[in-house]
């Protein structure tokens, strides 16, 4: 039975919870609301020559065009504003179509005096997100392309002096790195990154990627005049978490697509390129960034940032290029209708439009009940619609305004599923205090045939701001925040001071009650003041989906609390409630912390290996399941790793060491107290499941893997299946040939390929070992069953013989009683002492011959006595066996002494007649001694035979258990080096050798270790220095948890070095001295007890 204790059971429960969270994460994405963009004409890509083409033949520079504009592109005639698109991981240069096509149509439809020329780079669809050296190649080609594009405009009168860059995924980080290498700080005016991990890569697979981020990206000259805009796709982007895309700079801006006005949708990693709502927003911002005087993107970085802030953060519905006029007083016409209502909450519904301007007035006062004004305009097309004025001009029986100050720029375009909505909110008490010359806030609608609706709500903010205590994470009940909203209430604000961490997950329900109309619309917006990551949900008569209350990034210290802005339909009353979501919280943890599991899995395997090494000192290798159960407990390894990470991170004297990876999590706000423990235990549970799959695979997939290997060999060496089978058999017998082939592969192709192929051969070797082991186990149990049957029938026959001689038992009962009492006395005196019966008997054969001659006169008594002696021998065995079982085996193994076997003889008893009384007494003494000798012999033979039976399997299970653990480590190393293999395969047609190759050192080291690992019989249980190797493996596990949870490439070297050290130890470590090695721990007192007991039993 597979061993499971409390630790393993807890780990399995955590893995089960992780699986639930993973399913929620994968299936819990929001509805896909991105609209597709389309080209109006057939897209064309024109190749542009580049000086870097010789160095990088796999790359290419192209120009995008459509229809009649293609002819100009082919003549290399360009007169627009250059924009260069950089694709990302596995990205195509053709992904520029959506952005460029929309820009072309916008320029034609708007008839602007300028247009944009879009360029794109073909990076051969490389996996730049997985293999760091590719980033350096792409950076060099991008740098060359930048200058080549500007050369195309040398003959133009108004030639551009800068270029705009748009980078997707890793293309954005390449472009960001380019800024640090520019000789001209104004060469790149604008950089837009889409779903780009600017802080760090989710997985750092190699040192080149680590250096690319650490040493280059953030070391940008302050003189660089580039505006950086970062956009992330939200929760639908499974690859890049939004908090990795954030950038904090005075000249930079970051936002999530759900925050962008008139977009408000989530986009996955590829949709962020072509999502129509986002593409339109980006193009509007780029067009507004153009200086109409120079017809180029503005050189004023402050203006560029303001434009993008307007389009992706706070859109007031105005033309940003006319923003300056909104800070001046204007003259307004007082024609039309001027209406002032004294109600605090009311709605204005103009379902048929209006024929003349309508002005609605809200009086400014200092009354607490009139503190805040919330105003919602629905389907209003007027750009300027809210003003502050002094109603001092009399007209008829009322007063109207003739001059006013703009307030429209303070309004917002509000999220909606139907009709355009514009929202305005103002603290009228504070505004009136600072602007006492104004008496009213007025809003208007110009003549239109479209229906227009206004909702007005004047209230005291204390009535509408509610501080919410979040329910406990384990709570399954809804907690009411408001049983019923106020009548005709438009706005509420729910403050969430306890919403701080990204793993928190709650669900907000907004349920309509007592609606006056059938169609109604309400919205809820989760607003995080520390970042532009607002999320929205809508509640209508057809859509009742609750709002998922969760954060894209954790709340920084001293930041304002997150809050939910409710914009309700005044025709309804609503019930507001909040519920904790356990599955949602598990989904958040699965989303953000899955990358940490690989290192924790490796640490569990290393700790299991440490336990197996400790068992080698006792002459056996434990089963992998037992090693996980007993050796992988987190008490010491996690405590040491946590303390050392704290010390290394804080002591300046240790700055020469790399930064512990936990610091990344702390800086990002994603760390929490139980994270290391949960990650480790989840890793232990995953290893346990993988071990089960591995065991099943060894038995069930042996033939499948063997057939796949045969087909691979047949195609590789042009053999048929039969010859491939012969070759495979030969390779199993001489595996050093395979190891030599792996070494050649490392030098000729890629080290990662050698690791992967070696892992496949290792698995095949383990399948063969498992078959041999199963056969030995079956034969072992067959032999044991046969021996038990023989013993059973032998006892039955002996019992029948005793019944025939029962009449003689009374005569010899005294002797048996004396023997029993003697044994009982000796057992009582020597209870608790170490017993090891290993007595050498000399001259026993002569004694037996004499006893046979003396007893030859009475065969009946002889047979009876023999039966009794056998019965007494069995009683001696049972009594002594329990007391000496453990210590006798240990001492026998440690001292490794051989004992001489004594030929088993029958005890002879002579008739005890009065005439021969003295001789009979002497014979009884000899018989007692003979019985003791026989008992000693049986005890020794029993203990001697048991280790021999168990050792029949020891070499087999030691080998398969030991190699299975090493295979797990090999398998983890192969996973880490898969990106290198994929990169090598992808670029094979350009270069058969991967350069630079971060997998070369691990590949070469493992290939060399394969020589002894596969050729010789490991493990050796008689090697010294096992304690030192245990400590080394423990150190490797600690270092992995400290420095390799995020920087996974370091784990590659820790695991490789572990296999190298263990292999060298098995090969080169000296043997333990059998006469008194370092493992002989039998002390002098035990030896004395052993000698005393030995003498008494004699």
Topology:
Blueprint: H1 6-27, E1 43-48, E2 60-66, H2 69-74, E3 81-86, H3 97-110, E4 116-122, H4 133-151, E5 163-168, H5 170-178, E6 188-194, H6 207-217, E7 227-232, E8 252-256, H7 271-274, H8 276-288, E9 290-291, E10 296-297, H9 301-312, E11 329-331, E12 337-340, E13 345-350, E14 358-363, E15 372-378, E16 386-389, E17 393-395, E18 398-400, E19 403-406, E20 412-414, E21 421-427, H10 428-434, E22 440-445, E23 452-459, H11 461-464, E24 465-467, E25 479-482, E26 491-496, E27 506-513, E28 521-527, E29 535-540, E30 547-549, E31 562-567, E32 573-580, H12 582-593, H13 597-616, H14 624-631, H15 635-650, H16 662-668, H17 675-700, H18 702-717, H19 721-733, H20 736-748, H21 751-804, H22 813-829, H23 844-854, H24 859-895, H25 917-976, H26 978-986, H27 1000-1015, H28 1026-1043, H29 1048-1068, H30 1084-1097
Helix pairs in contact: 1-12, 1-17, 3-8, 4-5, 8-9, 13-14, 13-17, 13-25, 13-28, 15-28, 18-19, 20-21, 20-27, 21-25, 21-26, 21-27, 22-24, 23-25, 24-25, 25-29, 27-29, 28-29
């Amino acid at each position: 039975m597979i061993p499971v204790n409390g630790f393993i059971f807890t780990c399995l429960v955590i893995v089960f919870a992780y699986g639930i969270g993973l399913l929620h994460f994968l299936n819990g994405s929001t509805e896909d609301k991105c609209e597709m963009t389309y080209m109006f004409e057939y897209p064309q890509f024109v190749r542009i020559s580049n000086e870097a083409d010789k160095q990088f033949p796999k790359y290419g520079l192209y120009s995008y065009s459509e229809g009649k504009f293609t002819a100009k592109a082919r003549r290399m005639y360009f007169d627009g504003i250059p924009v260069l698109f950089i694709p990302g991981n596995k990205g195509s240069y053709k992904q520029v179509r959506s952005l460029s096509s929309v820009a072309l149509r916008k320029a034609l439809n708007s008839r602007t005096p300028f247009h944009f020329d879009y360029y794109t780079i073909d990076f051969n669809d490389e996996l730049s997100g997985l293999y760091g050296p590719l980033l350096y190649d792409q950076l060099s080609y991008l740098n060359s392309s930048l200058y080549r594009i500007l050369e195309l405009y040398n003959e133009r009168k108004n030639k551009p002096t800068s270029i705009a860059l748009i980078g997707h995924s890793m293309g954005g980080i390449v472009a960001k790195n380019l800024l640090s290498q520019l000789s001209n700080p104004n060469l790149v005016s604008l950089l837009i990154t889409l779903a780009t991990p600017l802080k760090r890569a989710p997985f750092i697979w190699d040192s080149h990627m680590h250096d690319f981020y650490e040493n280059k990206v953030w070391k940008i000259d302050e003189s660089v005049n580039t505006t950086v805009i970062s956009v992330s796709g939200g929760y639908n982007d499974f690859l890049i978490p939004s908090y990795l895309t954030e950038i904090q700079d005075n000249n930079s801006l970051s936002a999530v697509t759900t925050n962008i006005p008139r977009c408000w949708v989530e986009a996955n990693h590829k949709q962020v390129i072509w999502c129509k709502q986002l593409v339109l927003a980006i193009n509007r911002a780029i067009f507004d960034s153009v200086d109409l005087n120079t017809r180029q993107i503005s050189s004023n970085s402050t203006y560029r940032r303001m434009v993008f802030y307007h389009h992706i953060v706070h859109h007031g519905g105005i033309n940003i290029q006319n923003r300056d006029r909104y800070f001046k007083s204007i003259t307004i016409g007082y024609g039309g209708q001027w209406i002032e209502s004294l109600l605090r909450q009311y709605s204005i519904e103009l379902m048929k439009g209006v024929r003349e301007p309508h002005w609605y007035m809200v009086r400014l006062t200092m009354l607490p009940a009139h503190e805040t004004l919330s105003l919602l305009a629905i389907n209003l097309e007027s750009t300027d619609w809210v003003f502050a004025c002094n109603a001092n001009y009399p007209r008829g029986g009322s007063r109207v305004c003739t001059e006013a100050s703009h307030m429209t720029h303070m309004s917002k375009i509000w999220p909606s599923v139907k009709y355009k909505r514009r929202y305005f909110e103002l603290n009228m008490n504070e505004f009136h205090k600072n602007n006492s010359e104004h008496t009213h806030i007025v809003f208007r609608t110009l003549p239109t045939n479209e229906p227009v609706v206004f909702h007005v709500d004047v209230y005291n903010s204390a009535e509408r701001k509610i501080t919410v205590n979040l329910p406990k994470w384990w709570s399954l009940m809804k907690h009411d925040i408001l049983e019923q909203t106020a009548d005709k209430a438009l706005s509420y604000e729910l403050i969430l001071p306890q919403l701080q961490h990204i793993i928190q997950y709650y669900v907000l329900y907004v349920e309509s009650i007592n609606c006056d109309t059938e169609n109604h619309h309400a919205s809820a917006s989760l607003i995080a003041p520390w970042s532009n990551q607002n999320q929205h949900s809508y509640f209508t008569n057809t859509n009742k989906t609750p709002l998922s209350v969760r954060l894209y990034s954790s709340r920084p210290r001293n930041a304002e609390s997150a809050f939910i802005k409710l914009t309700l339909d005044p025709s309804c009353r609503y019930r507001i409630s909040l519920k904790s979501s356990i599955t949602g919280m598990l989904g958040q943890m699965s989303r953000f912390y899955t990358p940490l599991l690989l290192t924790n899995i490796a640490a569990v395997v290393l700790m299991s290996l440490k336990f197996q090494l400790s068992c080698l000192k006792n002459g056996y290798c434990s089963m992998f399941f037992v090693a996980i159960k007993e050796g992988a407990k987190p008490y010491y390894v996690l405590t040491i790793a946590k303390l050392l990470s704290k010390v290394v991170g804080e002591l300046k004297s240790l700055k020469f060491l790399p930064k512990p990876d936990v610091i990344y999590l702390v800086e990002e706000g994603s760390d929490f107290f139980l994270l290391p423990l949960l990650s480790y235990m989840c890793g232990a549970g995953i290893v346990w499941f993988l071990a089960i799959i591995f065991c099943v695979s060894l038995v069930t997939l042996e033939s499948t893997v063997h057939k796949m290997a045969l087909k691979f060999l047949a195609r590789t060496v042009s053999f048929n299946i039969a010859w491939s089978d012969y070759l495979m058999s030969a390779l199993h017998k001489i595996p050093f040939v395979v190891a030599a082939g792996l070494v050649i592969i490392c030098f000729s192709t890629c080290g990662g390929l050698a690791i992967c192929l070696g892992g496949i051969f290792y698995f095949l070797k383990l399948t063969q070992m498992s078959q041999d082991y199963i056969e030995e186990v079956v034969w072992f149990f067959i032999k044991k069953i046969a021996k038990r049957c023989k013993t059973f029938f032998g006892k039955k026959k002996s019992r029948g013989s005793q019944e025939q001689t029962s009449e003689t038992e009374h005569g010899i009962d005294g002797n048996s009683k004396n023997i029993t009492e003697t044994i009982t006395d000796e057992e009582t005196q020597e209870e608790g002492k170490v017993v090891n019966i290993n007595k050498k008997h000399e001259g026993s054969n002569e004694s037996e011959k004499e006893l046979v001659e003396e007893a030859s006169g009475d065969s009946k008594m002889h047979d009876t006595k023999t039966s009794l002696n056998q019965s007494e021998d069995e009683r001696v065995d049972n009594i002594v066996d329990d007391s000496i079982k453990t210590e006798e085996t240990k001492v026998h193994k440690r001292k490794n002494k051989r004992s001489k076997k004594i030929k088993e003889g029958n005890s002879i008893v002579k008739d005890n007649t009065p005439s021969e009384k003295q001789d009979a007494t002497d014979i009884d003494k000899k018989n007692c001694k003979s019985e003791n000798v026989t008992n000693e012999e049986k005890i020794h033979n029993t203990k001697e035979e048991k280790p021999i039976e168990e050792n029949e399997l020891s070499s087999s299970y030691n080998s398969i258990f030991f190699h299975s653990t090493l295979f797990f480590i090999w398998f983890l190393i192969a996973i880490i080096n898969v990106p290198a293999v994929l990169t090598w395969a992808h670029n094979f047609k350009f270069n058969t050798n991967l350069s630079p190759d971060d997998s070369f050192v691990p590949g070469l080291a493992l290939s060399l270790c394969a020589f002894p690992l596969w050729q010789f019989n490991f493990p050796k249980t008689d090697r010294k220095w096992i304690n030192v190797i245990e400590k080394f493996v423990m150190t490797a596990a600690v270092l992995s948890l400290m420095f390799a949870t995020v920087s996974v490439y370091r784990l590659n070297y820790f695991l490789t070095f572990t296999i190298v050290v263990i292999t060298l130890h098995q090969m080169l470590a000296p043997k333990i001295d059998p006469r008194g090695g370092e493992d002989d721990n039998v002390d002098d007192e035990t030896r004395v007890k052993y000698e005393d007991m030995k003498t008494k039993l004699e």
